From TrEMBL:
InterPro entries: Ald_DH/histidinol_DH, Ald_DH_C, Ald_DH_CS_GLU, Ald_DH_N, Aldehyde_DH_dom, Aldehyde_DH_Superfamily. This is NAD-dependent succinate-semialdehyde dehydrogenase. The keyword Methyltransferase does not apply. Residues 14-472 form the Aldehyde dehydrogenase domain. It comes from Streptomyces doebereineriae. CDD domains: ALDH_F5_SSADH_GabD. GO terms for molecular function: oxidoreductase activity.
Length: 479
């Protein structure tokens, strides 16, 4: 970790926190401290905001092609340093190296995608219906942004927000999660190397999120918030944005249903379940939470899933052959333990897993539960762990009602071989995304986001840049 920056990145310079404070970064596989990074306070946040505000006007005038080429260079540098970045992520977050390498490629692709979108920002125009004026529409950057990213995909969640902001011509203050600051600092160094001008991106690592973020959101100089995290924190941030009417994008929690109908190909369904549940140890907002399986195939599906889950190797992400790394911290593991214990007390049967191992680290084994009571806590909670809870159903209307019976609506998964049913059920699910006979929906070229309390706006895809742009309408008299 010696080559990874550990200071704040403000105005193109690497700085200690104003009060000299630092915070530890732990390896969740061992509990050991692997680095100490600067712990920003309100004064540092103000300095970062000032740098972003000062850089905004000139950056907005920068040619789209120049912004595009910076993103393209950063994309190439990221890929060149895949192993270095993967080891960094595994050290601070725990995911196995194979998954970390996959995230590096995924993260880089956001920069390539938005490098291409940067040169396609357009407007419009025409004669208005009354014939008196021409309408000219232009699109311009919304202005300085505050970006808040989570710990579970520390590199990709950064590029998914930074990419469109750079492409649109916005400056930024990035506040990464305190558990995983190193990936964001490494990304800032890459962008600096790629030629990003001073002040366009500023990174403040902190354990004092409220002290850093609230003054920025209420102060009126930050014009856009893009947040990925829990719904509870999202509500708090939305309230803080109200005073200055800050534009918001919110990618919040999920409680994904995974529906297996009686005509499903069970091989595909189990493959999809492994992807939708075990990606990132289940620590993903897209993770399948509630497995609704038709009663006629539930026993066989459960048996196959338990066999696959039980074969996964749990251990430190740097060890060869490991499939499942540790959860992010002890609090995360304790939450999973509590949810499983509650389900078992209510009558759930444990087919595999269900008990944390002894020893150091925050490990929890892949777990499959059947006969889960619908009143169990894990039915109404984002599990964020490797636990598959199976319930049975009898007919289509019933399962759609139960799948939609949640305040969240990020993603749903549907497994059926019937085209009519596939389209019908997908359209009735109250979610922003549907995986049809697949357990993976995330892709930089697709719009990512949910409905209800799973968020506002979309990230990625052709619409991802829209969140960072405003329209201006110019009326010109017809002579």
């Amino acid at each position: 970790m010696t080559d990874t920056p550990t200071q704040l990145f403000i105005g193109g310079s690497w700085l200690d926190a104003a009060d000299g404070g630092t915070m530890p970064v732990d390896d969740p596989a061992t509990g050991e401290i692997i680095a100490r990074v600067a712990d920003a306070g309100a004064k540092d946040a103000k300095l970062a905001e000032e740098a972003a505000v000062q850089a905004q006007e000139e950056w907005a005038r920068t040619a789209p092609r120049a912004r595009s080429e910076i993103l393209r260079r950063a994309y190439e540098i990221i890929l060149e340093r895949t192993d270095e970045l993967a080891h960094l992520m595994t050290a601070e977050m725990g995911k196995p190296l194979a998954e970390a390498r996959g995230e590096v490629a995924y993260a880089a692709e956001f920069f390539r995608w938005f490098s291409e979108e940067a040169v396609r920002i357009d407007g419009g125009g025409g004669i208005l219906p009354d014939g008196r004026n021409r309408m000219l529409l232009s699109r311009r950057p919304v202005g300085p942004c505050l970006l808040i990213t989570p710990w579970n995909f520390p590199l990709a969640m950064g590029t998914r927000k930074i990419g469109p902001a750079i492409a649109a011509g916005c400056t930024m203050v990035l506040k990464p999660a305190p558990q995983t600051p190193l990936s964001s600092l490494a990304l800032a160094a890459i962008l600096q190397e790629a030629g990003l001008p001073d002040g366009v991106l500023n990174v403040v690592t902190t354990s004092r999120a409220g002290e850093v973020c609230e003054p920025l959101l209420r102060g009126g100089r930050i014009r856009k918030l893009s947040f990925t995290g829990s719904t509870n924190v999202g509500r708090l941030l939305l309230a803080q944005c109200a005073d200055a009417v800050v534009r918001t994008s919110m990618e919040l929690g999920g409680n994904a249903p995974f529906i297996v109908f009686e005509d499903a190909d069970l091989g595909k369904a189990v493959d999809g379940a492994m992807l939708a549940k075990m990606r990132n140890m289940g620590e993903a907002c897209t993770a399948a939470n509630r497995f609704f399986v038709h009663h006629s195939v539930a026993e066989e599906f459960g048996r196959r899933l338990a066999e696959r889950m039980g074969a996964l190797v749990v251990g430190p992400g740097t060890r060869d052959g490991v499939d499942v790394g540790p959860l992010i911290d002890r609090a995360g593991r304790a939450k999973v333990e509590e949810l499983v214990a509650d389900a078992v007390e209510r009558g759930a049967q444990v087919l595999v897993g269900g008990r944390a191992p002894e020893g150091p680290g925050c490990f929890y084994p892949p777990t499959v539960l059947t006969d889960v009571d619908s009143g169990s806590l894990l039915m109404d909670t984002e599990i964020f762990g490797p636990v598959a809870a199976i319930l049975t159903f009898g007919d289509e209307d019933e399962v759609i009602r139960r799948a939609n019976d949640t305040p969240w609506g990020l993603v749903g998964y549907v497994f059926t071989e019937g085209l009519d049913r596939a389209l019908r059920v997908s359209e009735r699910l109250e979610v922003g995304m549907v995986g049809l006979n697949t357990g993976l929906v995330s892709n930089p070229a697709a719009p990512f986001g949910g409905v209800k309390q799973s968020g506002l706006g979309r990230e990625g895809g052709r619409v991802g840049i829209d969140e960072f742009l405003e329209y201006q309408y110019l009326a010109v008299p017809v002579r």
